[in-house]
Write a structure and sequence with these properties.
By secondary structure, this protein is mainly alpha-helical. It has nine helices and no strands.
Length: 248
């Protein structure tokens, strides 16, 4: 197991494997997303209280889940890079930041659009909304810190430390609706008891959640391949790869 992980962390091995895996994941993601959208927008019935407006949850909820999931991956990869000095982990952490920021922005925008008919306003300084906004700023902080330092290794370590410190915000987001009185509704799917959502709505929601995860992995593999090439542009395997792709 450790031998496989060590071999997969090798930049040339990762570059080849990621290039082979990413297209398959992309097609699976597209199929699941199409099924989830059809189930959520066509098959699922209107909500008895919110009517048709609730259907935004099929984008809002998976994007909110992914905003936290990607940050945990980024912080975990940063810790691995700092402790074991694995260059690929640093690449994964840095290349995850723009994707996670996009999911967070999408969650905030769709949440605001959902909040207007439900709360009568696009934004309130609610505990869940505010902590999610802080998460977006944390993503921006990681990206900005990495871009501000010229030396890539120093920049990676500094951004990694920042990401690890910021992970304290994740449980605050998750438990904010339980710790404080908030306008945001409580958990409906991730409850210890049975989910308080009908199966006709739950199934497409879970399909969308899986498709969003596959979308993240697919985009991350493509971004990481580019990141590996950029950081290893002087390595022999990169020069050999470029020599094989140059026209004669």
């Amino acid at each position: 197991m450790w031998a496989f992980l060590h071999r997969f962390a090798s930049p040339p091995h990762f570059y080849r494997r990621a290039g082979a895996i990413a297209p398959w994941l992309g097609w699976i993601c597209l199929g699941l997303m199409a099924a989830g959208l059809y189930g959520g927008l066509v098959v699922a019935p209107p909500d008895y209280q919110q009517g048709e407006s609730y259907r935004i949850i099929f984008v809002h909820v998976p994007s909110a889940w992914m905003s936290m999931f990607v940050y945990v991956v980024m912080a975990g990869a940063s810790a691995i890079a700092l402790i074991w000095r694995i260059k690929l982990a640093e690449v994964i952490a840095i290349e995850s930041a723009p994707v996670g920021a996009s999911f967070t922005f999408l969650a905030l925008v769709t949440g605001s659009l959902w909040g207007k008919p439900m709360w009568g306003t696009y934004w309130v300084w609610d505990a869940r909304l505010t902590s999610e906004l802080i998460l977006l700023f944390l993503y921006f902080g990681v990206m900005g810190l990495y871009a501000a330092i010229e030396d890539r290794r120093t920049a990676g370590r500094a951004a990694g430390l920042f990401a690890i410190v910021g992970v304290v915000n994740i449980p605050i987001i998750h438990y904010s609706v339980e710790w404080w009185h908030t306008l945001h509704q409580g958990p409906t799917v991730t409850k210890l008891s049975a989910p308080s959502i009908h199966v006709s709505m739950l199934v497409p929601l879970l399909l969308m959640a899986v498709s969003f995860k596959l979308f993240y992995v697919t985009v991350l593999l493509h971004r990481a391949r580019c990141g590996v090439l950029e950081r290893g542009r002087n390595a022999g395997w990169v020069r050999s790869l470029l020599a094989r792709t140059e026209p004669e």
